[in-house]
Backbone:
């Protein structure tokens, strides 16, 4: 299978029920929170059966993710004490973000999230009993009390706020000096995305927003976010940053941004979308 010429976005079909007979399987190998990468990242692909056999890696668990064509795809949890196979090394998920096709990156992120969910749900959080995988869907069920556990997603909002031709960008304490991005934050239990937008923007930068418009979403597997991206218009207030989280926030003209939008992330997509509309005179 020529992975470099497969459009994973359309070719991958999610499934949870592994076939009875496994042929032509491919494995995304996860160990201690890292992914098995190869020396040539732009040619990265999951291991096939032969490569897995010769790698000498020991499987701790295996999780069916779905299909690419007629090839079943598995996330494979490898023994953390295994040596790196020759020509391969375990690497952080970040190192794949800019080096493989973005849809392949999402599949790798899926594998990592499923393995980590399995690792943290071997026992029931309610009674401590053992759990087992259900055959009909992606869930674990406590053998003692019946409690069900599903992979966790953490929804968050990210918003590009404009005031005329200016957009409001913020900088986290830990970021390099000139790196700014759109305001973002996690939803709280009981909130709608719209409610979270108003709350998070006011908490972080002290302004009120209006005319919220949903743009799109992105899986962000660090560790399990679903980013919901919006545009909003400034309504009122002066910038007043939440100093525990941010070191700076400013209005920037779309032609004078402190850093180019990083197009691998939804923040970049949102900012670029605004720039294109501003240049077209439609904001
Ligand atoms: Zn239980």
Residues:
């Amino acid at each position: 299978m020529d992975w470099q010429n497969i459009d994973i976005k359309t070719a991958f079909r999610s499934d949870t029920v592994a076939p009875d007979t496994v042929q032509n399987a491919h494995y995304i190998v996860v160990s201690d929170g890292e992914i098995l990468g190869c020396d040539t990242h732009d040619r990265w692909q999951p291991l096939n059966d032969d490569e897995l056999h010769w790698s000498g890696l020991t499987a701790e668990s295996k999780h069916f993710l779905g299909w690419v064509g007629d090839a079943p795809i598995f996330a494979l949890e490898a023994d953390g004490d295994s040596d790196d196979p020759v020509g391969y090394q375990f690497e952080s998920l970040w190192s794949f973000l800019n080096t493989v096709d973005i849809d392949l990156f999402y599949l790798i992120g899926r594998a990592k999230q499923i393995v980590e969910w399995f690792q943290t749900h071997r026992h029931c959080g309610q009674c401590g009993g053992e759990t087992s995988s259900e055959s009909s869907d992606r869930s674990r069920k406590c053998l003692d009390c019946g409690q069900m556990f599903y992979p966790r997603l953490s929804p968050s909002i990210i918003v590009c706020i404009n005031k005329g031709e200016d957009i409001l960008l913020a900088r986290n304490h830990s970021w390099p000096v000139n790196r700014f991005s759109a305001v973002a934050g996690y939803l709280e239990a009981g909130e709608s995305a719209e409610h979270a937008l108003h709350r998070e923007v006011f908490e972080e930068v002290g302004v009120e927003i209006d005319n919220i418009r949903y743009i799109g979403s992105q899986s962000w597997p660090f560790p399990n976010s679903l980013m919901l991206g919006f545009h909003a218009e400034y309504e009122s207030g002066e910038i007043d940053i939440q100093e525990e989280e941010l070191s700076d926030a400013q209005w920037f003209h779309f032609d004078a941004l402190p850093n180019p939008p990083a197009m691998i992330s939804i923040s970049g997509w949102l900012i670029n979308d605004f720039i294109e509309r501003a240049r077209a005179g439609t904001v």
